[in-house]
Write a structure and sequence with these properties.
By secondary structure, this protein is mostly helical. Helix content is 81%, strand content 0%. The chain contains eight helices and no strands.
């Protein structure tokens, strides 16, 4: 079997729109996941069962089922009900999936903060919410940065599943081109190169954030 890797540069421009689509899905999915994660973690740590139970159920269901199943469930289910197109369905699925994991990341960071700090804040007259936002959350966020960076990279790789609902991201583009030029390994190599590039950039950025916030000394 002969692999024509010398011809890879001429095919790279064909991947650029798909590379942008992969980045767009990832960023939107992470942003939605951050919002859902923050809302869920406050429900999760609440003493009120009306908030706590739904948060538990959401995290249990999402973490207990595959992302591909969730993606297909949302795409085919929402399309039949409200005509949801492929891109919003992919962003919604990735956001909901990321939200459950991000909620657990934040919860772990919050409970790692000494309870004495909350008690001290309440003793000087701070309300629970004020103490949470001014004292606990800033420290928890710094501690959560490494895990959030890992989740961001996982979300990037998970975006490849959007190819199953016909979104023209990197993986689907490589398959489409390979079906016409019969260069499957070469096209997959280009797609892999983009993923490695993105992963390297995101890893560098998060390491920079970690150093700037000095997370090791929290």
């Amino acid at each position: 079997m002969y692999f024509d890797f010398a011809s890879l540069p001429e095919y790279v421009p064909y991947f650029l729109p798909a590379a942008w689509m992969t980045l767009e899905i990832t960023m939107l999915g992470i942003l939605l996941g951050l919002v859902l994660g923050l809302v869920t973690v406050f429900m999760r740590i609440s003493d009120k069962r009306i908030f706590n139970i739904p948060a538990h159920a959401y995290i249990y269901v999402i973490r207990g089922t595959p992302l591909l199943l969730q993606l297909l469930f949302i795409y085919f289910g929402m399309r039949s009900m409200i005509g949801l197109s492929a891109l919003p369905a992919a962003v919604l699925a990735l956001g909901i999936h990321n939200g459950a994991y991000i909620a657990e990341i934040f919860r772990g960071a919050i409970v790692s903060i000494s309870s004495g700090q909350m008690e001290a804040a309440r003793s000087i007259g701070m309300s629970y919410s004020r103490a949470m936002f001014r004292i606990i959350l800033p420290q928890a966020f710094k501690r959560a940065i490494p895990a959030l960076g890992n989740q961001f990279i996982i979300a990037l790789k998970d975006s490849s599943l959007a190819s199953t609902i016909t979104i023209n991201e990197l993986l689907l583009k490589s398959q489409q081109l390979a079906s016409s030029n019969f260069m499957m390994m070469e096209m997959l190599t280009i797609a892999g190169g983009f993923y490695l590039l993105y992963t390297g950039v995101f890893t560098f950025l998060f390491h920079g954030i970690e150093k700037r916030l000095d997370t090791g000394r929290v």
